[in-house]
Amino acid sequence: MAPCTGTTVYMLISMMIFITMVGCSEPKQRMKETKMVLYLQDWEFGKNSTAVPVAGINGRFANVLNFTTVSVVDDALTEGLDRNSKEVGRAQGIYVNSALDGTNLHLIFSAIFTNGNYKGSTLEFQGADRRNLKYREVSVVSGTGVFRFARGYATLETVFVDDSGYDAVVRFNATVRHS
Ligand SMILES: *[C@@H]1O[C@H](CO)[C@@H](O)[C@H](O)[C@H]1NC(C)=O
Ligand SMILES: *[C@@H]1O[C@H](CO)[C@@H](O)[C@H](O)[C@H]1NC(C)=O
Ligand SMILES: *[C@@H]1O[C@H](CO)[C@@H](O)[C@H](O)[C@H]1NC(C)=O
C-alpha cells in the first residue's frame, strides 16, 4: 500500500470541507409551531351518545372503565366546555381499556377539522389516557393538510364528569410542530 502523503491528506480534508459546505447550503425547512385548545365531548350515555363500547372480555358487560373494553368514538371537538359551543371537528377512532385495574384508556383517534382555521386538515392522537391523573399527556404522531409531518403532544385534563361517571368533557391543550 502506498504511504499516505501530505498532499493526499490535504485533498481529503478539502473534499470533506466542500461536502460539509454543500450540506449546509441546503435551505433548512423551518417547522411551524401551533398551539390549540380543544374540548372533547365524550358522551357515552343519554341523548346523542358519541362513544359506544363495542366489545369486552368474553361474557362481561362491556364497560369503558373495565379492562379489555373497546369503544368506538365520534366525539365532537368544540371550542368551549359547553357541548353546544362551536364545533371545530370530530375525534373519530377508538379507546381501548388496556390496564388490568381499568385505569388506562389507550386512545387512538383522528381529529378531523371541519370548521375554522384547520378545516380539511387532520391530526392523529395516540397515547395513554390514565384517567385517574389530573393531567395526562398523549402524543400527536402525525397529520395531514396544514399539519403534514406533524409531531407534538397534548396535555389532557378532565374538566367535566357527570353523575354517571361516564360522560365527560376532556380539555386537550395541544402543541404541534409541522411543515
Ligand atoms: C341531540 O340531537 C338532537 C337531534 O339531532 C338535537 O336536536 C339536540 O340538540 C341534540 N342534543 C344535544 C345535547 O346535543
Ligand atoms: C368495572 O369497573 C367498575 C368501575 O371502575 C368496577 O367497579 C368493577 O369492579 C369493574 N368490573 C370488572 C369485572 O373489572
Ligand atoms: C390549557 O389551556 C387552558 C386555556 O388556555 C388553560 O386555562 C389551562 O391552564 C391549560 N392547561 C394546562 C394543563 O396547560
Automatic annotation (TrEMBL):
Keyword terms: Apoplast, Membrane, Secreted, Transmembrane, Transmembrane helix
InterPro entries listed in its UniProt record: Allene_oxi_cyc_Dirigent, Dirigent
Gene3D superfamilies per UniProt: Allene oxide cyclase-like
Compartment(s) of residence: Secreted, Extracellular space, Apoplast
A Gene Ontology biological process term: phenylpropanoid biosynthetic process
Homology family: Belongs to the plant dirigent protein family.
UniProt function note: Dirigent proteins impart stereoselectivity on the phenoxy radical-coupling reaction, yielding optically active lignans from two molecules of coniferyl alcohol in the biosynthesis of lignans, flavonolignans, and alkaloids and thus plays a central role in plant secondary metabolism.
Subunit structure: Homodimer.
Name under which the protein is recorded: Dirigent protein
Organism the protein comes from: Kadsura heteroclita
